[in-house]
Write a structure and sequence with these properties.
Helix content is about 30%, strand content about 25%. The chain has about 375 residues and is α+β, with helices and mostly antiparallel strands. Helix 6 packs antiparallel against helix 7. The protein is elongated, with a radius of gyration of 38 Å.
């Protein structure tokens, strides 16, 4: 039975655009897909589906379409053209292309993440990403800095000039996949495309690998990279350096470098977002009598006025003395937590003075201990 004209099968004119051809094929594929046609008309629908698929595969590629336009079916018939796999032997390449990545992932003809086909030949793989942990101080995180890091890099092997083959030899095409980098496995009506297990997607085999690079075509080096740390960066944030990851395969793009920030523990401050917290030791006498004390900040020192009778745990807030985050317009605050220190290693004279002071407090009653009465009342209430 003679084949129908491909343009007639899709219902388009010979001067139809690629988009018109794709739309026509989509419509026919959805109408005659075997999954949507069961029963008596299933076989006829399957034949129409295959016919539309074959027509689309030929007319969607410029070279095939040009050959068909000039020579008709003879220009694209595999029995005449020299053994090229026919439309029915290529699985669902055209179907996946027409319906995008969703069907492409299912049927193996679309580009999976990180890999694609290079002109119908070898598979092209994107290089792997690299991760680098960089430790900086809190001051550097707050103010930003420029730094240099040394990272692994790959350069073309000078011995084999990047071919991976021993000098005097050359790679040969993979006999398993025919140099395509992929093989097809048929499962009933479907054809699944997989990476060639023999050449691992490169499409070539190296009989005698280069001894310098072990057949990789590249050698590992180190390079120095300038890194700019933005002010306000926080623990765990990552800086992306495009193209500084591992190189791709078969001409694929390189991966990226991700620099993860680790902030060293500070002797004084603890960071909470854009705010800073610190504990300020205050002598017992200063807390009782009040006065001004000096506290540290990232930008120098500041003063806090302690009111008379400052209690342990009292918090003072210094506005704008924190850190301005990466996405913040204003800096955070500094929270100073008072820690009243009890004197130790007292002399006899100091003990005598404290005992006299304690006796004076007892005579003064509750007015010298603002929280003791309420605490005592709560304890008594537990035993009623």
């Amino acid at each position: 039975m003679a084949k129908r004209d491909y343009y007639e099968v899709l219902g388009v004119a010979k001067n139809a655009t690629d988009e018109d051809i794709k739309k026509a094929y989509r419509k026919l594929a959805m109408k005659h897909h075997p999954d949507r046609n069961q029963g008596d008309g299933a076989k006829k629908s399957e034949e129409k589906f295959k016919e539309a698929k074959e027509a689309y595969e030929m007319l969607s590629e410029p070279q095939k379409r040009a050959a068909y336009d000039q020579y008709g079916h003879a220009g694209v018939d595999p029995n005449i053209a020299g053994g090229r796999p026919g439309p029915g032997q290529e699985g669902f390449g055209g179907f996946a292309e027409a319906f995008g990545d969703i069907f492409g992932d299912i049927f193996g003809a679309g580009g999976a993440a990180g890999q694609r086909r290079a002109g119908g030949g070898q598979q092209v793989f994107r290089g792997a990403d690299l991760n680098y942990a960089m430790e900086i101080t809190l001051e550097e995180a707050a103010n930003g800095k420029e730094s240099q890091i040394r990272i692994p890099s790959y350069e073309a092997c000078e011995t084999c000039h990047g071919s991976g083959a021993k000098p005097g030899t050359s790679p040969r095409g993979c006999s398993t996949c025919g140099g395509a980098g992929t093989v097809h496995m048929r499962q009933g009506f479907f054809s699944i495309q997989q990476t060639c297990p023999h050449c691992h997607g490169t499409g070539k085999i190296i009989p005698e690998p280069c001894t310098t690079c072990n057949g990789q075509g590249k050698v590992k080096k180190t390079k120095t990279l300038e890194v700019k740390i933005p002010l306000g960066i926080n623990e765990g944030m990552r800086i992306r350096s495009s193209g500084n990851g591992e190189p791709g395969m078969n001409g694929g793009p390189p991966g990226d470098l991700y620099i993860e920030i680790r902030i060293k523990q500070h002797e004084i401050f603890e960071r909470d977002g854009d705010d800073l917290h610190c504990t300020v030791p205050v002598p017992l006498t200063a807390a009782a009598l009040g006065g001004n004390i000096e506290v540290p900040t990232l930008g120098g020192s500041a003063e806090i006025e302690l009111p008379e009778g400052t209690q342990h745990g009292k918090t003072f807030r210094l506005r704008g003395k924190g850190i301005r985050g990466v996405r913040s317009s204003y800096p955070g605050d500094l929270y100073c937590h008072v820690s009243v220190e009890t004197p130790i290693k007292l002399t006899e004279h100091q003990r005598k003075l404290l005992k006299e002071l304690d006796e004076s407090f007892r005579k003064g009653g509750e007015r010298h201990s603002p929280t003791s009465k309420s605490w005592t009342d709560r304890v008594k209430g537990m035993f009623k």
